[in-house]
Amino acid sequence: xxxxxxxxxxxxxxxxxxxxxxxxxxxxxxxxxxxxxxxxxxxxxxxxxxxxxxxxxxxxxxxxxxxxxxxxxxxxxxxxxxxxxxxxxxxxxxxxxxxxxxxxxxxxxxxxxxxxxxxxxxxxxxxxxxxxxxxxxxxxxxxxxxxxxxx
Length: 151
Description:
Blueprint: H1 5-17, E1 24-31, H2 40-43, E2 51-52, H3 53-56, H4 59-64, H5 71-83, E3 87-94, H6 97-103, E4 112-116, H7 121-127, H8 130-137, E5 142-146
Helix pairs in contact: 1-5, 6-8
């Protein structure tokens, strides 16, 4: 979750299509290595501990991990946690999103759901595609949710 429109679309898709009562959702955040919260050194290799939604919503907790919580994302997660009795957790990693998303497979995930920015071929070659890398390298199934083309 990088709070981009496509990552929010991927979260909405997962909530609408995958999540069933009693499931657990782990929202994975990958913070750039340039962000250096105090506790980064404690969790740099393994990522943060799993953070329950109620704790993550507290601004001090999010800031502690170098994140600014997004109201729109929290507004999507609150109802699903209450109505479907879904456990929502967050985990924060620092570094390259491609590698860290693949590393998250050690959490024994049923699937990773990622958004795709819809880069053209040239930009994808020059910049790299997080979703393409994850599809090729993750040890669990990956669903890529593409944004609708502009009209």
